[in-house]
Amino acid sequence: MLSQALDALLRKRQSRAPLSDASVDTYLAKTLFIDVEADRGGRPNAVGAVLDDRIFRWEKRGSRPFASAGLDGFARGAERIAGHNILAHDLPILRDAVPGLAAWTLPVVDTLVLSPLAFPANPYHRLIKGYKLEKDAVNDPVADARLCRAVLRDEIDAFVRLVAADAGRCRVPPLRAVWPRP
């Protein structure tokens, strides 16, 4: 389910109230952006997360088990979680690896699902990883979580422009009404 806060941001814009960068920044600061790199068996090899200006990083090699890595404490204060393809990839892996984590009950925002709605003219909607100069370079889940944050900001901006361009002819329904909870 998309969070009620995103709905509130869009409703504020629909009512002609200005949507400030500060309100979007507050929304993003309370969002836990997370990315998982997994092996072929669906077990996490690396997890990266960003919450406001803090980062969380866990890597399988030479590390403590993921279940005791401290993600629950790191996620405290988050009002929602977000990721690029989080519904189909990251969240199922994370829920299997650490069932019962409080963060898994938060509303979920999937930027991959929102991307075609925000940018219908784009021929693709994958996460553009500018840090990967070579095709075989290793993925960085913290960098991907930061990229997801930038993508969500761009998507919010696109939705605000869409609502503004509509000039009140039709209303955007509350997204939570059309978004199933995983």
Structure description:
This protein is α/β, with parallel strands linked by helices. It has a single domain, classed as Nucleotidyltransferase, domain 5, CATH 3.30.420. The chain is 39% helix and 16% strand. The protein contains six helices and five strands, in the order H-H-E-E-E-H-E-H-E-H-H. It has a five-stranded mixed β-sheet. Helix 1 packs parallel to helix 6 and helix 5 (111-118) runs parallel beside helix 6. It is globular and about 55 Å long.
What pattern of helices and strands is seen along the backbone? Answer: HHEEEHEHEHH
Summed over residues and divided by their number, the pLDDT gives a mean of 81
CATH-derived architecture: 2-Layer Sandwich
Segments where pLDDT lies below 50 for 5+ residues?
Answer: 176-180
- Number-wise, the strands total 5
CATH C-level: Alpha Beta
Give the number of domains: 1
Largest sheet: 5 strands, mixed
Roughly how many Å apart are the termini? Answer: 7 Å
Strand content: 15-25%
Major β-sheet strand ordering: 3-2-1-4-5
Task: State the CATH topology.
Answer: Nucleotidyltransferase, domain 5
Count, helices: 6
Helical fraction? 25-40%
Q: What is the alpha-carbon Rg in Å?
A: 17 Å
